[in-house]
Design brief:
It is built from five helices and six strands. It is an alpha/beta fold and 171 residues long. Helix 3 packs parallel to helix 5. It starts with a strand and ends with a strand.
Length: 171
């Protein structure tokens, strides 16, 4: 089985993903912030690394020797006080993850983004899709949307350099 890193494993999506990967027989590293935990992680045979995706050393320690990475960590808020944290986590942190994945020759990294970062079609009766333009003038002021938009752009940029990266955008 593969060795996998999951960031954000103390959250809802990350903890469920970690549980599923362990159940499948994978060796799993998790990178979570200090003083965070999720009950789903109790009694799992996992390697726990405490750190932050905004810190490259934390990432390297947790990612070393892994085959695959699930980048699930992020900050969700619409509060002005959290703007800096959202930008540095959802954009800079993801950029750090992508750069280190490329450096360590990770086979594939899956980045959790958000439908907030994709364009909204002019025809409101059509579903959201990646081809609709992102209205920078309108949404630049909404840091969550803007940071997730930048995250998606950074993933595309790294994909163009040869990194095997997929982006998922749950609603």
């Amino acid at each position: 089985m593969a060795k996998v890193l999951v960031t954000g494993a103390a959250g809802h999506i990350g903890s469920n993903l970690t549980l599923d990967l362990v159940t499948q027989g994978h060796e799993v590293n998790i990178l979570i912030k200090p003083n965070t935990w999720h009950p789903y992680l109790d009694d799992l045979n996992i390697n726990v690394f405490y750190g932050d995706i905004r810190d490259k050393n934390s990432i390297k320690l947790a990612m070393k020797g892994c085959d695959y990475v699930y980048q699930v960590a992020g900050t969700i808020s619409y509060n002005l006080i959290d703007y800096s944290k959202m930008f540095t986590t959802n954009f800079i942190g993801v950029r750090n993850m992508l750069a280190i994945a490329k450096e360590l020759k990770i086979k594939k990294i899956v980045v959790t983004a958000s439908t907030s970062g994709i364009g909204i079609p002019e025809d409101k009766n059509k579903p959201l899709n990646e081809d609709a333009p992102f209205d920078m003038k309108k949404y630049r002021k909404v840091m969550y949307m803007y940071s997730k938009y930048l995250c998606l752009q950074e993933c595309k940029r790294f994909a163009e350099t040869g990194l095997n990266v997929s982006m998922i955008s749950p609603t």
